[in-house]
Amino acid sequence: MDTPPVHSDTVSRLIPAGIALIFIGMLLLFVGVFYSIIRSGGKGEYGGVVVIGPFPIVFGSNSDVVKIAVIGAIVMMVLALVIMLLPLLIGRSIAPTR
What we know:
This protein folds into 2 domains: 1-44; 45-98, no CATH class. Helix content is 61%, strand content 12%. The protein has 2 helices and 2 strands. The protein has helices at 8-39, 63-90; strands at 47-52, 55-60. It has a two-stranded antiparallel sheet. It starts with 7 loop residues before the first helix and ends in an 8-residue tail after the last helix. InterPro entries: DUF131 (IPR002849). Pfam families: DUF131. This is DUF131 domain-containing protein.
């Protein structure tokens, strides 16, 4: 059985780039949180959504933050669904062909 060739040059460039983008995103997230706390005089607002199976658990310090968290969760769920269904939508399989 022949396996398809792996383009190691491309992979060796993309993996560090992906890791760097993850760390840059986390850094921007922390900087944004600290900037928001400093700008608001130490009063921070919080909110989030935890999805366990099909059940979302929504929490937040006020209703505006909860609305933003729910909208963000819906957007991320739709994006995840589109990414998972993308191979079917394009009509190809991700698996390599022989």
